[in-house]
Amino acid sequence: MKKNVSAPAQFNQGNFLDTPQLASGITRFWFIRHALVEQNARMNLYGTLDVPLCPDTLIAQRPMYEALAARLPREAHWLVTPLSRTRKTAEAIWDAGYGPAHADVEPGFIEQNLGDWQGMPHSDVTAYLYMPPHPFWPVSATECPPDGESMVEVTARAGRALDRLSHQYAGQNIIAVSHGGAIRAALSHALSVHIETALHFSIQNLSVTILERLDEGWRVVTVNELPGI
Predict the structure, then answer these.
(1) By its UniProt entry, which Gene3D superfamilies does this protein fall under (predicted)?
(2) I need a surface site. Which of 65, 97, 148, 188 has the fewest CB within 10 A?
């Protein structure tokens, strides 16, 4: 006797990504790490210090801004953090062909607050650490600088922001210009992995990381996608 099998009921085929085109009507976060900061600032731990962008790189990387302007969805809610380097990055993308837009400030996606260690040269920080630094981050994921926060705490606040915004903008695109640490924290939340593991992701300046919120859970579409490359 032939068994009657209903394919749609048996296979979850609708959530496969089989084409380059991303489906509409999905809650989708487009994370962009801000542009490269000024050279002197890069010599120190800057965390949540409001350091300026590198003016020479803003000019030299104009093609990358143009590629971002072409890549990003037009129907989207823009978010920046309280730090000017994210807003300046967003403005550079708008000026490169995206067109005028409005960005709301979202503190949940700000960089790790390194407390008393902010402004300290990288080479001097090791003397103050309680545990070995992460191989791809200045401090261990569980290290909490005095008057600062650990990356575990960053993951918690970034995760709360993701969950809140995914409900607020359900079925829509959200473009969030953020920071390397916060984007790794978002990946930690989406993948349900410890931030110590997520810090192994490379998140370069101006790269795109796309997360989707589906009924089944979070899906990572791309990580560290460099525009125009």
Answers:
(1) Phosphoglycerate mutase-like
(2) 97
d(CA 33, CA 26): 22
Q: Are 193 and 34 in contact (CB under 8 A)?
A: no
Structure tokens at 144: 């909490």
Closest CA relative to residue 31, chosen from 78, 99, 101, 97: 78
Instruction: Say if residue 149's pLDDT is above 80.
Output: yes
Task: Look at the domain 25-225 and name its fold.
Answer: Rossmann fold (3.40.50)
- Provide the β-strand partners of residue 121: 44
- Whole-model pTM: value is 0.92
Distance CA 20, CA 55 (A): 34
179: buried, middle or exposed (CB in 10 Å: 19+, 13-18, 0-12)? Answer: buried
pLDDT tens, residue by residue, 30-57: 999 999 999 999 999 999 999 999 999 9
Q: In this predicted structure, what is the pLDDT of residue 21?
A: 79
pLDDT at 19: 66
